[in-house]
Specification:
- There is one protein chain.
- The protein is an alpha/beta fold.
- The chain is built from 11 helices and 10 strands.
- Helix 5 links the parallel strand 3 and strand 4 (224-227).
- The longest helix has 40 residues, at 2-41.
- The chain is elongated, with a radius of gyration of 41 Å.
Length: 379
């Protein structure tokens, strides 16, 4: 039995040996063929390829180092922002968000996010925007217009009630197109800009101007005050304050003729403008360059005359019956009326003798800004 077993073991070993003799060479041949095929498909690297590979590797390492440095800087910046006194930005956050750990992600706000939160109301006369008038006024050099043949028909200006899609009076747009060539302004034709120009007429003082100036100073808003010569003579301290606090002072004629400038001849109209201009220049060292027509009455010829006197003629796109001191409108109703007519490029006319205007001016400014409007001084 033992001999048989030993014979069977020898036969198995011999068979295994024979198999390995055939299998190993075949495996070697297969591997060799596979290697040759891959070698044919992938050409050997040239010296240029090796140089490029080394360059790319170096750049990758450099970029990685730069990224690590930026990450470290960002981390340092975040830590610095978190260490700031939280009261520094208190105005920018609701009261219930102050010092709240749930809002720590706010420190990661990007510059783009800050720009998105920026509104036109933020531009009200800060440094770098909407420069205030110079303390000496502005001198224009208008292109002169031949007055001969121009229409002398007197026109009464009123903004009318028809409104366009931007809530702008249609009459303003029509007159601006027709008379704008004479440096006349009935509205600022920029519907894409939510800008308001505030103008205040000062025919005589009724004890309201000081409070109006206080409100404008508190709200950081500049306006145009149109004054007559009589007003300038009787209220020099108020006129000087207007100039000192960055408001524009405009010409409202010498005598404020009720029949309007077109009722006078060229010489009389010229004197209504130049006499007041010279008085303000002599007394305050200030050159006026904006004119408001008494009672809003004008003619084509008078517009050209004002242009030749180096003035801009400023009308309005909103006004209401606020000048009758014996019959002042209700403050709440007046504020609603003013807000309902809000529109881009608006030139608002308010009379300074109005107690109603004096009361609602602050609320008007606040509510207008809340709707994204910016107050600018007309220049």
């Amino acid at each position: 039995m033992d001999n048989r077993r030993r014979k069977r073991r020898r036969r198995k070993k011999n068979n295994t040996a024979r198999i390995m003799v055939y299998v190993i060479p075949i495996a070697v041949i297969i591997l060799a063929v596979f290697g040759i095929t891959n070698a044919l498909k992938k050409p050997p690297k040239t010296e240029e390829d090796r140089t490029q590979t080394e360059t790319q590797t170096a750049d990758s390492k450099k970029n990685l180092s730069s990224k690590d440095l930026v990450d470290e800087n960002d981390k340092s910046t975040d830590q610095s922002e978190e260490s700031l006194d939280p009261t520094d930005n208190k105005e920018d956050k609701p009261d219930d968000e102050d010092d709240s750990p749930d809002n720590t992600d706010d420190t990661d706000t990007t510059e783009q996010d800050k720009k998105d939160d920026f509104t036109l109301a933020d531009l009200d006369n800060p440094e770098g925007f909407d420069e205030r008038p110079t303390e000496n006024g502005i001198v224009l050099e208008n292109q002169q217009i031949d007055l001969n043949g121009l229409d002398t028909t007197g026109l009464d200006w009123g903004q009318g009630g028809d409104l366009d899609q931007w809530n702008r009076p249609a009459g303003c747009m029509q007159y601006q197109e027709k008379y704008g060539k004479y440096n006349a302004y009935f509205i600022s034709d920029e519907p894409e800009k939510k800008v308001i120009y505030l103008t205040i007429d000062e025919g005589y003082e009724y004890g309201c101007s000081e409070r109006i100036l206080n409100t404008l100073k508190e709200k950081n808003v500049h306006a145009v005050f149109f004054i007559t010569k009589a007003y300038a003579k009787q209220n020099p301290e108020l006129v000087q304050r207007m100039i000192d606090e960055g408001h524009e002072v405009g010409n409202h004629s010498v005598t404020h003729p009720a029949a309007g400038l077109p009722s006078q001849d060229i010489a009389q109209q010229t004197n209504e403008v130049t006499e007041n201009h010279q008085y303000v220049k002599d007394q305050f060292g200030y050159d006026m360059h904006l004119f408001r027509y008494p009672a809003g009455k004008f003619s084509e010829q008078s517009l050209a005359l004002l242009n030749n006197l180096n003035y801009k003629s400023i009308f309005w796109s909103f006004a209401y019956l606020d000048y009758d001191v014996e019959n002042q409108p209700d403050p709440t109703e007046s504020l609603q009326k003013i807000m309902d007519r809000l529109h881009p490029g608006a030139i608002y006319l308010l009379h300074a003798e109005s107690e109603t205007n004096t009361q609602i001016l602050g609320d008007f400014i606040d509510q207008t800004r809340a709707q994204g409007y910016e107050f600018k001084v007309f220049e």
